[in-house]
Structures are given as structure tokens and as C-alpha cells.
Amino acid sequence: MTVKYLGVDYGDSRVGIAASDSGILAEAVTVLKTGSMRKAIDMTAEIVRSRGVQTVVIGLPLNMDGSEGERAQKTRAFGRVLAKVTGARIEYRDERLTSVEAEQLMTEAGVKRQRRGEIIDKAAARLILQSYLDANMSKDKE
Fold first, then answer.
1. How far is 98 from 108, CA to CA, in rounded Å?
2. What is the rounded CA–CA span in Å between residue 79 and residue 77?
């Protein structure tokens, strides 16, 4: 059985979602407009259930020195509750600079500034998940 993955870029008002059914390639899926952690958990849990996801990879917003601040603690709280609600395995992936990288990719692709806000969160979620998948593939080859 192939493990299905969900990538999550968690934010206070929006949650970027990416997915991989193959464990090889991540695809940007959607941006959830949530407004609260409870709503973010409920909406994300519904996607986990409907897609049959076993592993959720959540971007962890570390400080530039690698330490965890308030934002990372809030993200871990989101992950803990999501795990309890869904039973899915939760993994965390350093997300420093993923939004910056997503912004650069969109600029290079010619995406207009007003459209970038709509897609940057799901693009960041895709980068988070793809980074995790690539790292796991490297481990498998060793």
C-alpha cells in the first residue's frame, strides 16, 4: 500500500495544502481560509480523512538561528490536535524561507502580484512536502 501524504503550511488565517499520493511528487492543492486554529484543524482533518492520508508534514517556522519561537509552538499545538483528531502520523519540516522561495518561483513564472497572495500558501505547502519526500527518498537509497 502506498502511503499518502499531506503537506501543510499552517497560518493564523490561511492554511496551504499540498498532497502526494505517490510519495514521490508533491502537488499544490488548495488554500483554506480559516481564521482560527479550531477551524483550521477541522478543515484540514476533513481533507486528511477524505484523501486517506497517513502522514501529515507540517512546516515548522523556526527562527533563523534554528530555535523555536511562539509561532513554532503554535504550529506544534496545531499538529498535536490534528494527530488526535485524525490518527495520522505528524512530521515537521523546517519551513524557513519556503514562502520566500515560493514568491521567487511565482515572480519568475510571471504571476501577477495580486494573484500571488492566493497561491503562495499552497506553493509553500508543496515546497515543504516535496522537501520531506526528497529527504525520505535519499534515505531509502542509502
1. 15
2. 5
pLDDT of residue 117: 67
* Spans of the chain, pLDDT less than 50: none
What secondary structure letter does DSSP report for 109? Answer: T
Backbone angles phi and psi of 96, in degrees to 5: -55, 130
Chain centre to alpha carbon of residue 5? 10
Concatenated DSSP letters for 40-57? HHHHHHHHHHHHT-SEEE
Q: Which residues pair with 57 in a beta bridge?
A: 7, 91
C-beta of residue 131 within 8 angstroms of C-beta of residue 93: yes
What is the torsion angle, in degrees rounded to the nearest 10, for the CA atoms of residue 65, residue 70, residue 74 and residue 79?
30
